[in-house]
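Issue 218. Parser rejects a valid record. Input:
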Amino acid sequence: MTRALRRSLARATSAVALSFAALMGSAPAHASGAEDFYKGKTLRVIVGYAVGGGYDVYGRFFAEQFSRFLPGAPTIIVQNMPGGGSFVAAKYLYGAAPRDGTYFGCLSQTLALDAAMNEDPSTFDVTKLNYVGRLLDNVDVGTGLPGASFKSFDDARKREIIVGATGGASPGYLVPAALQKFGGAKFKIVSGYGGSADINLAAERKEVDVIGSIGLALIMQRSPAWVTEREAPILYQIAIKRHPLLPYVPAISELGLSDEGTSVLKAIGASSEIGRSIMTTPGVPPERLAAVRAAFQTMLKDPAFLESAKKRDIPIFGATGEELDDITRDVMKTPQSVLDITKALMKQ
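Output the parser choked on:
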């Protein structure tokens, strides 16, 4: 080895060592700053739906667990803020909540698509909300209760079936409306319920036939035989491909009767990638946001966290906040023609 080459390698090694030392020195400083900020504070998780549904289950599980991993171990409480398919909660996080990393949200997986269709987007830029991470890539389904007089989506193409839904911006309304227009379904949609738990009660009282949107994970937690034994008639899954647990149930992307309809249904189905995720407000200081995201990823790998989720039948399949931010930006690029069609469905 020549003397010049040895000097070059020595300089490179020294530079790497200095960079590593800088990184090692800065990481504790960031963690220390977050710990100083969060210690003794009370944080809030805003759930955009009523108590008892899938979003509520995951929002509360996050609130229960996350304090152990966040520097400073703050107290975390949950506040339900239903309305507008979680748009009420989203606007609160965007415009009213403190922008300091003390407020989090568990909101609709279709939030980005809903925002893209917003007639006045200047009042609410969904890309400014920061995702912390995903707890589960979620597939919602439309299902009747055991003992229903219908069995499959083909039956919905032959006879009127009453579907219970939340607000017009929610998957529980939007998907049946899209399938009514583009999939040949004879759905009659009754909206205004607070969440899937309320719709389930309405179905038990025979007010509606189908829960328009309920998480597959929630069904597996509470009534797994609906899936494993096919006890309940599941008509569709809100996804772009069939879930391994439901190979016999069509994804909505399969049910369009035209190219135009298929494009709309695919755009809606893509929301399953967001699933049950946690976000925070715009304007959180970058170092604090990085600390929160790092704590979330540590939580996802923690054996005690995973064991607790397993015991309570809460499936976990995580993703990073950065990945979810990218998905949101992609959804906001959906062609205007598809957005116009989807928006019209919500005004029926």
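Fixed in the parser; the record now loads. The longest helix spans residues 3-38.
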